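Exercise 7. Given the encoded structure of a 347-residue chain, write a plausible sequence.
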């Protein structure tokens, strides 16, 4: 049971998932501490039991019985807690995924509506502005002249609208992997696997507006003849690329600068890479277009991580649960059997 306890405590899936859910962390610590303590208590009771036949004092079986009773009860409680924490963690993950998917679907609806409005605006005839009216607007400091040509858009500071990325199940949406990978910001090398993306009928289903960009040759030229400075094999490689842009319209450069300067950037990167490597997956609650650290060259990964995570969470708790309950049952029968020795001890 000691070995099971330490294996449980060193479970990498548990240790990584508790970064996202504090309840898993609290449950792991409680179960590990309780299991280790009562592993040694059980071992001590076994040694203590060997002296049962040798020590004739009447107080010995009484003390032994008093110690046995709470011990087997607590071990069975530990097993029950394992079941509760395992079921609770999986239920919490399912609930969080429901919220994540609902919010994502709403964001897709908003994107579709925005694209529809943009298309309608683009089809409208151009606005004709009278020269005298334009001069009056400029001289008076009015904003209507500017708004007619900018749609009322205001220049934003470089970090406006950039949120801090945190470890959570919707993190792939937070890092914009579906929007920026294999785009003009992070062009990809041409590969036979590109059909996995080029044949996608509805990019907006992933909140993606831009076309996929695959480049070839030493000059990284796309199908339209546009040349790019670099191409990238993974999204992580693109984010880590040292080149930056001071253009406030370069949304990716602004996001990348903000993300990379976070104190927990490397922790987040390692966290994503662990699950993608461990389960050959991408995305937690829903599939993504691209991975964080896995190359796109072998084709699109359509497997989500959440099913394997739940299986490993459950198996991690089941091992310690079985050992705790088995040890508790053994101590229970020991507690019963030791009373049959009392008459001999009391003669």
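Solution.
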């Amino acid at each position: 049971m000691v070995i099971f306890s330490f294996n449980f405590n060193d479970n990498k899936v548990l240790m990584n998932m508790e970064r996202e859910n504090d309840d898993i962390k609290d449950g792991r610590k409680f179960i590990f501490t309780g299991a280790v303590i009562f592993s040694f208590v059980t071992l001590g009771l076994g040694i203590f039991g060997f002296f049962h036949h040798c020590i004739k004092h009447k107080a010995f079986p009484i003390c032994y019985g008093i110690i046995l009773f709470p011990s087997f009860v607590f071990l069975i409680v530990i097993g029950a807690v394992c079941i509760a924490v395992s079921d609770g963690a999986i239920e919490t993950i399912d609930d969080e995924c429901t919220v994540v998917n609902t919010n994502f679907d709403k964001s897709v609806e908003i994107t579709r509506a925005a694209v529809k409005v943009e298309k309608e605006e683009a089809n409208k005839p151009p606005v004709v502005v009278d020269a005298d009216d334009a001069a009056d607007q400029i001289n008076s400091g009015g904003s209507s002249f500017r708004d007619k040509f900018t749609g009322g858009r205001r220049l934003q500071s470089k970090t406006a609208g950039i949120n801090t990325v945190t470890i959570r199940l919707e993190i792939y949406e937070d890092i914009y992997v579906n929007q920026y990978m294999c785009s003009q910001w992070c062009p990809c090398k041409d590969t036979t696997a590109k059909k996995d993306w080029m044949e996608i009928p509805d990019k907006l289903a992933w909140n993606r507006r831009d076309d996929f960009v695959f480049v070839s040759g030493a000059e990284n030229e796309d199908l339209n003849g546009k040349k790019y400075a670099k191409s990238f094999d993974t999204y992580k490689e693109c984010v880590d690329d040292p080149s930056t842009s001071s253009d406030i319209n370069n949304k990716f450069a602004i996001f990348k600068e903000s993300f990379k300067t976070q104190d927990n950037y490397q922790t987040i990167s390692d966290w994503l890479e662990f699950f993608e490597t461990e389960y050959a997956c991408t995305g937690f609650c829903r599939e993504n277009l691209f991975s964080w650290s896995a190359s796109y060259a072998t084709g699109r990964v359509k497997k989500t991580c959440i099913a394997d995570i739940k299986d490993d969470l459950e198996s991690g708790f089941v091992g310690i649960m079985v050992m705790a309950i088995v040890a508790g049952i053994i101590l229970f029968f020991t507690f019963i059997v030791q009373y049959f020795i009392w008459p001999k001890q009391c003669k």
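Remark. Residues 2-98+309-346 form one domain. Students should compare their own answers with the one above.
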